[in-house]
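Appendix B. Chain record.
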Amino acid sequence: MTTGDVLRLDPATGALVERITSSRDISQGPEVMWIAVGEGGVWTASQSGRVAFVDSRTNRVTRAEEVSDALDGITVGEGAVWAINALEDSILRIDPATARVTGSPVRVGRAPTAAAAGAGAVWVTSERDGTLTRIDPATSDIETIDVGGAATDVAVGRGAVWVTVDVP
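Structure tokens predicted for this chain:
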């Protein structure tokens, strides 16, 4: 496997359907990568700060942009792609049509670890602060919620926002 590969697997059999190997478009070398689905296709974020859009109809990278010096996760929803920048304790809003950052970074708690979009908001966990940040996608207004421990992951669904917390 080359650096930056994205594998498309058949959910019923687990068989490889396609290997997308545009390593130069997807990432810049051996590094951690994240993946999310939405806004018309598949999005990847690489540790070096690149986001890429894989068209799920053609299995090809059609947009790729450097959006930061470093990224730490990605989620898609509420009309945008959202990429975590833990170095700056922020999350970036990315226009799905261009793969470019729109607006200013939204400040969240220290050491953001994960993000999820849904229920009318974008949710970001912050490990050092023990917080969950709720971002209004229309205004970028935030609400900080103390979750009582190192917040490590978040998901939205089944009528709730779900947060994993490492309690001391």
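Further analysis of this model is presented in Appendix C.
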